Amino acid sequence: MSSVTFETQRAALADVVAIPVTPFAEDGTVDQGAHRALLRRLLDGGITTLTPNGNTGEFYALTPEERRLVTELTMDEVGDRAVILVGVGHDVPTAIASAEHAREAGAQMVMVHQPVHPYVAQGGWVDYHRAIAEAVPELGVVPYIRNAQLTGARLAELADACPNVIGVKYAVPDAARFAAFARDAGLERFVWVTGLAEPYAPSYFSAGATGFTSGLVNVSPAVSLNMIEALRSGDFPAAMKVWEQIRRFEELRAANGSANNVTVVKEALASLGLCRRDVRAPSKELPEDERAEVAAIAAGWSI
What we know:
Shape: globular
Number of strands: 8
Order of helices and strands: HEHEHEHEHEHEHEHEHHHH
């Protein structure tokens, strides 16, 4: 196992990690044609890292069959044009089965969704991720951390047992906590991905992150790439210019406990004629009077 260096996977995480939406057809099924077209648009826009079955892809609203479909469709459409990390989660056997399916489909990494359970012990968090990582030692494994209680020492403990845990999607909205967590776990040991997308990327990059996730990238790959280029060159004023450009869009997504996180992205895509606005419960479509603002923002980016 130690001979596997995961260099390709590590490089892919230090980038814009796109979280594609899952478009739905009028009959409520996954719209495979629209999905492929949106993936091609991301690839043609310069995106080279994709996470099918992420939260912006409505992971928790998809059936197991649909999650497999999304993985297979993504691998088929993308080929070798991007590195794929497939979102996996739910109970341990389900997560392992999804990770094994991702491996069979040709993915190079899996992103493990935060355990959705009312009672998460820190040692239990390690056990959960260890079971998944040990099942697919050939794949890079990226825990998605939203638990503010988790310590960096626990992540180091996991990686000691599982050397394929190579990156972290850190999504606790606290830049000081992130800086401390990354150093406690090992700043150089992992690739640190800002799991809260563009709004948090400048502050998290200043503390050691080298990649960020994005749902906005579905709408405008160029905007996301402009931000990472500025951050890579250490040009924080330029990055903050992009931040100002995306601020309102991301505020709409974050409002009311991120109620419309996916909804706003799909609304923007619908305004551009790229997919239907349909989302699944417990998400909800935007009311008519709020759609125009989203359309105006998307139109401004597409110039």
